[in-house]
Amino acid sequence: MAYICNICNENYRNLVGVIEHQKMEHTKEETKYKCDKCKRGFATKEARNKHRNNVTN
């Protein structure tokens, strides 16, 4: 069974994975790093860059 982040729709094998992902990627500062393609915000540059690479591919 897959667990899906309700914020960005990424899939995880278990609920703990989703919770840890949300702590790291979707914090109060999630709008600090904006995607220039869709204007979605991310807590880290790495998360934004990963998203941006997926959006452009």
Automatic annotation (TrEMBL):
Keywords: Metal-binding, Zinc, Zinc-finger. It comes from the Eukaryota. This is Zinc finger, C2H2-like protein. Residues 3-31, 33-57 form the C2H2-type domain. Pfam families: zf-C2H2. InterPro entries: Znf_C2H2_sf, Znf_C2H2_type. Transmembrane segments: none annotated. GO terms for molecular function: zinc ion binding. The keyword tRNA processing does not apply. SMART domains: ZnF_C2H2.
